[in-house]
Amino acid sequence: MSDTTGKTEKIKNRSQQLQMILRYKDVSIVIITAVLFLIFSLINKVFLTKENLYIIIKSMPELGLVAIGMTMLIISGEFDLSVGSTFAFAPFIMTILKERVGWSGLASFSACILVGIAIGCINGVITTKIGIPSFITTLGTMMAWRGAVLLVSSGFPQVFQRDLPIAKLFAGSLSGFPIQFLWFIFFTIIMWVILENYRFGNWTYVTGGNKQAAIALGIPVDLVKIINFMVVGGLAALAGAIQVFRMGSGYSIAGQGMELQAIGATVIGGTLLTGGSGTIIGTIMGTIIIYSVENILVLSRAPAFWFRTFIGVIIIIAVSVHVLIRGRKS
Amino acid sequence: MESRTETPIYRITGISKSFGHVEALKNVDMSIFRGEIIGLVGDNGAGKSTLIKILSGIYTPNSGTIEYEGVVRKIASYRDSQELGIATIYQDRALVDSVSIYRNIFMGNEIIKPTGVLDKRKMRKEANRVLRESISIGIMSPNQVVGDLSGGQKQAVAIARAIYFRARLLLLDEPTNALSVRESQQVMSFVKNLREEGVSSIFVTHNLLHVYSIADRFIILSHGEKVGDFDKKDITIERLEKIIVTGRSDVA
To answer: Distance, in angstroms, between B210 CA and closest chain A CA?
Structure first.
């Protein structure tokens, strides 16, 4: 049976190769990021300077926090268009509670996070229990919460005391290093560990990968999705609060377009929109790519509107590369 | 058949199930003994799938009882069915293509360390063992993503999962559908190997050639009724086909 053994050999080689690539799936996106960095540093000498990287590191955690939450949610098979509105609404409530009602910094910040988690919970419960697509649910809540923040703000910014301990804890600096980046790393590690090493992470993957199979094996798929919606909501609220701490005011228009950037960072990083597959590290690279593109355009004094065009092109190229690496499936 | 002296592991008695006015199953009796392969055959609409779904806890019967080792038990959910050692192997619905083999095998039953962290090393090791020992299939590594496997290998992973969790009865609903001849042979040989270990199987298929080659006994359903229960030695494949077509066991 030389034919059979030949075929087995071929299958062996193929699966070994595939395995190698899959094992190094994250490496490919890291390489893409590194190549882009190299190109950008050649385009503009300022790009790789300490001062410039500091600018990137300081502003990146806001999108990054939302994007890692989005990644978990997309892996579980849903997504959230309302993150940008949550990013504005929850911290705005914080500024009002602190500055107009007179709550302490810590209490108003806690309220902000709880509001974010509650928004996620509402999205999750509507999506799973009524059974409508999360695209529709979160399109609705995106508009609703944006309307709400415009209403309570009347379109005006609300100042927030920047020198509060809570503001320093989340957006201060540690011997010159932006603390928000440390928080970003902290949450990245937490989410990565949960996804890779805890039962909940496994359930998140299988819920998004094959909901029917997950149900058949007794996995509470609705609960898994609702928790992931709550994670995104909470992280969007935290990210919004960090921006308020950084800027010293809450804005009703904060976070507009953020939902698409967060989804963009996620898919650039190799997460499938169909669910069941993706990594946190990929998303971090996606976020770094988005911020470096924005940064290099500013450095090169290119008109700001190029940013969207570039990101659009990069999304298509990155996802094409992922598909080619994975191998097209019939 | 009923002349056996040993007690069956599973015995179902007087099972009926209707959907509105349609009687899908009428007063069906059936015994399943240790380590036997039953071919559950019949034309479309005979009630095969309904019977399988009752055993796997998806449907609850309108009347009738299910006994496990001589004790009447209720199967009201998939979990109940699992607890009685019944595992349903569906064509495609049971596995997650985007994750690895070992994560699939332990899906919903993950091995964790006392700290709550997944014991990946142990899961990989156990997955490897069950794939090699029970199923003896040439899968490279438990880290391989299920989406890269062939149809036969996927069935093997699903069966391996059932075996690992001590299934005593496999319900195979059209397991060889959409598989190549070679892969069908593979799946049938897993089922045969498992018989040696005392695992019973109910094999539902339209393919009489496949089922005739491996089953020990045939149960024939027609319009929701049991019209035949034969040991393999008592029936030829031609007669089996005739009974399926006519719905009567008194044909020559």
So the answer is: 22
| Contact status of A218 with chain B (Cβ, < 8 Å) | yes
ipTM summary value: 0.76
By the CB < 8 Å criterion, does A44 face chain B?
no
Q: Return the closest-CA partner of residue A327 out of A92, A115, A19, A72.
A: A19
Chain B from 228 to 247: CB within 8 A of any A CB:
none
pTM greater than 0.95: no
B41 and B81 both lie in a single domain: yes
Give the Cα separation of B160 and B103 in Å (integer).
Answer: 13
Q: Does residue B184 sit in the same domain as residue B116?
A: no
Q: Which of B98, B103, B145 is nearest residue A202 as measured by Cβ atoms? A: B103
Could you tell me if B103 lies within 8 Å of chain A, comparing CB atoms? yes
Q: Fill in the amino acid letter for B229.
A: D
pLDDT, tens digit (0-9, with 9 covering 90-100), for B5-44:
788 999 999 999 999 889 999 999 999 999 999 999 998 8
Tell me, yes or no, whether B179 and B252 share the same domain: yes
Dump pLDDT digits (tens) for A93-119: 999 999 999 999 999 999 999 999 999
User: How close A193 comes to chain B (CA, Å)?
Assistant: 9
* Pick among A17, A190, A217, A277 to test the B interface (most B CBs inside 10 A): A217
pLDDT along chain A (330 residues), means of 10: 51 57 66 88 89 89 96 96 97 94 94 98 97 96 96 92 90 89 95 94 94 85 97 98 94 93 92 90 93 88 84 86 64
Residue B60 shares a structural domain with residue B177: yes
Q: Give the structural domain span for B191.
A: 1-85+170-252
Give the residue among A284, A290, A180, A185 at the shortest CA–CA distance from A242: A180
Q: Is B95 part of the contact surface with chain A (CB cutoff 8 Å)?
A: yes
Comparing A42-46, A214-218, B112-116, B212-216, the range with the smallest average pLDDT is A214-218
Looking at A126-270, list the stretches that DSSP marks H as alpha helix, in order from N- to C-terminal side: 134-153, 165-171, 179-197, 199-209, 211-216, 221-247, 258-268
Q: What is the CATH number of the domain that holds B26?
A: 3.40.50.300
Structure confidence at residue B91 (pLDDT): 62
User: What is the crossing angle of helices A221-247 and A83-96, to 10°?
Assistant: 60
Contact of A214 with chain B, judged by CB distance below 8 Å, is answered with yes
Q: Of the residues B138, B167, B196, which one is the last residue of a structural domain?
A: B167
Kindly state whether residues B196 and B221 are assigned to the same domain.
yes
Domains held by chain B: number: 2
Domain finish residue from B142, B167, B192: B167
- Work out the angle at residue B228's Cα, subtended by the Cα atoms of residues B224 and B231, and round it to the nearest 5 degrees: 140
